[in-house]
Design a protein that fits this description.
alpha/beta, about 230 residues, seven-stranded mixed beta sheet, Spore Coat Polysaccharide Biosynthesis Protein SpsA, Chain A, six-stranded mixed beta sheet
Length: about 230
Amino acid sequence: MNEQTIAFICCVNNENHYNECKNHINHLYVPAGFRIEHIPLYNCENITVEYNKAMKNSKAKYKVYIHQDCFILNKTFIPNFLKVFSEDEQNGMLGVAGVKQLPPSGVWWEGKECYGKVIEYRQSYNYLCFQEFESQYVDVHAVDGLVVVTQYDIEWDERIKGFHFYDTSQCIRFIKQGLNVVIPRQPMPWVLHFIGKRGTNNQDFREFHQLRKKFLHLYGDTLKYI
């Protein structure tokens, strides 16, 4: 395990988006002694399978799982997340938006105590700003998978097949191992999510709800106790 390597892991099916994502990564401040590596994943049918392959093949201690349309705006992203991890060795996973307590639906943004910030672009720019807090970070039950940083390797649940609820199930897996999932305080949003004009068709809608049912079947009982 290389404790001074940071791997940026990304599923790619749009080279333009990925190149922009990578360009933002390459302009981040990298602390002395650290290095970054890019791990693009092509032809992804199951994000959990591909993330597991990348996780096992990379010797980097710190892994950033990032969507190709997520652009990091915070130039000090790396020292910022390193500081959060150094504050408590039990801080295992970090995200930029999520929820304190998962609701019975399993859908994090339907929860009552959401935290974090994201600039989102669909057909126009939107500023998503959830509840503010003064501490350096806040413990949560789930974070959104648009960008997730880990300092420990725990296998992603390959029973979650597709591109929904893979992130929420992974958060629960970290918590069940006694690790914290956290969202750092962001005076300004750390990332831009460039969704564009992508719509949600009936197939996407069906897949989301199929995976929500699968997630609740696998983890529904756990939501009462975490």
